[in-house]
Amino acid sequence: MVVWAPDDVVNAVVYQGTGPKSLTLMTMRNVGSGRGAHTSLLIDASQRVLFDPAGSFVSDAVPERNDVLFGMSPQIEAYYISYHARETYYVETQKIFVSPEVAETALRLALANGAVPKAACAKATSGILRQLPGFESVGSTYFPVTLRDRFETLPDVTLTVYREDDADDNSTAAAQINAALTAGQ
Predict the structure, then answer these.
(1) Domain range annotation of the chain
(2) Which terminal Cβ of the chain has fewer Cβ within 10 Å, N or C?
């Protein structure tokens, strides 16, 4: 489905990180089986965006253009992770620092990618990554954990695991997060 937030809405929320440029692969995994349920890529370039292919995270305060979410401040990143982490799923993030040129290329590729069909999140994310210098080894895959495992072999990747014990139905969390974001919290 095509989603295209207007320029003024996107421009109003652009967030620029203050640290070194980076890419953060996010993998949502089933607690029981360890299987991957979703993949996304946080891109910290001239602006900080999240490539969330076929993702379900929606907030009135986070404009989207075809699976790219804008205004990804650390607070919104934390809400995104919290939305996915619950009693049946946990989130792994793998962060790697990159040159400004690699970050900008990732941003351009994500913006040009277009909307992704369901069950193709890892395929789309690996398709972007393997076009970047130094990331060719991630190859192409439909499987979030395969992508996660290949990403882990890159030099200097930092892994963080997030767990929460919210109920499996994340609709309540989604409503609470949206209310907090639209209230400016």
Answers:
(1) 7-182
(2) N
